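Work Package 4 report. The design task specified in the project plan requires that, given a folded chain encoded as structure tokens, an amino acid be chosen for each position. We show below one input record used in the internal validation round.
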């Protein structure tokens, strides 16, 4: 427009050009007014929508700014509380450990009473497990507890003497219990023969099926490749039933005794004690058997003499 007006030759041309431009502006204003009238609703809606969007964007910016400030504040607070939280966490672990130690101490205090009950009922494997576990705890995690010093000495002394009781029980079943079964079978056969009043001599007793410690310890080293009927028994499989009489099965009971001695690490002492007492125990077996045979023979002779059938 400026170039057109400045290049005009005279004032008249400029006025003409000016008038033309003003007319064009007026026409543009009229057209704009008409368009505004025609699209007033849409224009109003667009303006309101734009204002709403602008307000929401402004609010979102303010909220994000506030969230950033809150996050920075939380970060500062967490940074300040980190050491305290770590301290509380460590204290929680310590308290839990102390509670576990207190429970263990409470259980160990009841060990002497439970041990006495197990020994009275002859559940030696359970008593050995309990005693070994208690001594290990007293000499391990609870070593610094001064209040348990007397209990520690008492249980340690019982552990040192426990194998003597087990060895005595083992000898009793090894030499006395097994021979008592033979004597009882002999008495039963004598009683049956006296009831039948048979004059034939009493048959020899079959001892091939008697349970012996040797048969209990039969393993693959004693068996041949062709013998599949030999029963293999491992001490690891021996378990103690608290509800049954422990001496009901003498073979299993001896296995339990050996397992208890192994837990006490007293197998060498056991072997030495068996070797030392072997000759004496065998002499006692011969002595008891001789007395028993003599008594049975005397009783049989009395019965025969009463029946007037001397032989």
């Amino acid at each position: 427009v400026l170039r057109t007006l400045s290049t005009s030759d005279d004032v008249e041309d400029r006025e003409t050009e000016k008038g033309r431009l003003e007319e064009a502006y007026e026409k543009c204003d009229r057209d704009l007014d008409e368009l505004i009238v025609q699209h007033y609703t849409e224009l109003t809606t667009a303006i309101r929508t734009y204002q709403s969007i602008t307000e929401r964007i402004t609010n979102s910016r303010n909220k994000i700014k506030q969230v950033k400030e809150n996050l920075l504040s939380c970060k500062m607070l967490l940074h300040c509380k980190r050491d305290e939280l770590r301290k509380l966490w460590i204290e929680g672990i310590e308290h839990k450990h102390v509670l576990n130690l207190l429970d263990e101490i409470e259980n160990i205090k009841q060990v002497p009473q439970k041990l006495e009950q197990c020994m009275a009922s002859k559940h030696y494997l359970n008593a050995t497990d309990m005693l070994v576990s208690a001594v290990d705890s007293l000499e391990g995690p609870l070593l610094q507890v001064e209040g348990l010093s007397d209990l520690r000495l008492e249980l340690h002394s019982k552990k040192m003497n426990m194998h003597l009781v087990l060895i005595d029980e083992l000898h009793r079943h090894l030499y006395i219990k097994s021979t008592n079964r033979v004597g009882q079978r002999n008495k039963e056969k004598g009683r049956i023969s006296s009831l039948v009043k048979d004059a034939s001599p009493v048959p020899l007793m079959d001892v091939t099926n008697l349970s012996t410690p040797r048969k209990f310890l039969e393993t693959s080293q004693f068996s041949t490749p062709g013998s599949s009927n030999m029963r293999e028994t491992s001490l690891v499989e021996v378990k103690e039933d608290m509800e049954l009489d422990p001496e009901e099965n003498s073979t299993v009971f001896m296995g339990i005794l050996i397992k208890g001695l192994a837990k006490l690490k007293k197998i060498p002492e056991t072997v030495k004690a068996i070797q030392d007492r072997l000759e004496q125990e065998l002499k006692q077996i011969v002595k008891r058997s001789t007395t028993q045979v003599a008594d049975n023979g005397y009783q049989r002779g009395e019965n025969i003499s009463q029946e007037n059938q001397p032989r």
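The chain is about 75% helix and 0% strand. Validation will be extended to a larger panel in the next phase.
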